[in-house]
Design goal:
five-stranded antiparallel sheet; binds 2-acetamido-2-deoxy-beta-D-glucopyranose; single chain; Jelly Rolls; alpha+beta
């Protein structure tokens, strides 16, 4: 009996602890009204009577993204802004194209875990554990058909190590995972972070920071 009560207490504790993800829906559908000027956690729902099949539809993920940029990758997002029907469902998808030797530079998704499947090519992928875990790098080379998961919030990357283009599909447990590209946030912030602060953080001369801050940081 005491063991049962203890189990119940533990279960109720853990079930209250797993709320760090998108909240659960309170109705069948809540198609985002992308034009609403009201700010809520997520998007305002439009009248369910006005919902159409197209709210739950996206086309064109068969088409490659344009990887002609300085990192050689393109991410085609199917987040709530592209598919209004995703609102409150806690899920989304991307297609990622990589030019030969292109990459998605180290970045993090503040609101989602990512699970990635390689459709074409060979990717070197990895994520880094937090300071508490000694910044351990967990990395692997993936081939066509391989699947890898990047835990929520951790810094990760994917790099095409092949001389042919690579393609991946990745899913997220958020309608709006968010993308924070580390280099862009640190060196490309607007306005720039003081070079004094970054020189100390990176243990380099301020000139190196000024050089980095002067680069053209484009969000992939
Ligand atoms: C791809 O992007 C580059 C750089 O922005 C641009 O010059 C080029 O026209 C684009 N190609 C296509 C097919 O859209
Ligand atoms: C932390 O990382 C250092 C350097 O790689 C390594 O020597 C050490 O064994 C690691 N410690 C733990 C607890 O993982």
């Amino acid at each position: 009996m005491a063991a049962h009560i203890l189990l119940l207490v533990l279960l109720s504790l853990t079930s209250t602890l797993i709320h760090a993800y998108d909240p659960s829906p309170l109705q069948d559908i809540c198609v985002a009204d992308l034009k609403s000027a009201v700010f809520v956690n997520g998007r305002v729902c439009k009248d369910p009577k006005l919902a159409k099949a197209d709210d739950f539809f996206f086309e064109g993920l068969d088409k490659p993204g344009n990887t002609s940029n300085n990192v050689g990758s393109a991410v085609t997002t199917v987040f709530v802004d592209q598919m209004a029907g995703l609102n409150t469902l806690g899920i989304s998808l991307v297609r990622i194209d990589y030019a030969p030797y292109g990459e998605t530079s180290p970045h993090t998704h503040p609101r989602a875990t990512e699970i990635l499947t390689v459709l074409e090519g060979t990717l070197y992928v990895g994520f880094v554990l937090s300071n508490q875990n000694n910044n351990t790098l967990i990395s692997k080379v993936l081939n066509k058909g391989d699947v890898f998961v990047f835990p929520i919030g951790l810094i990760h990357f994917q790099a095409n190590i092949g001389h042919i283009p690579a393609i991946a599909i990745a899913a997220f447990n958020s309608q709006n995972p968010g993308i924070i590209t580390i280099a862009n946030s640190v060196f490309g912030s607007n306005p720039p972070i003081s070079d004094k602060v970054l020189a100390k953080a990176f243990q380099v001369d301020k000139k190196v920071i000024d050089y980095l801050e002067a680069q053209f940081w484009v969000n992939p």
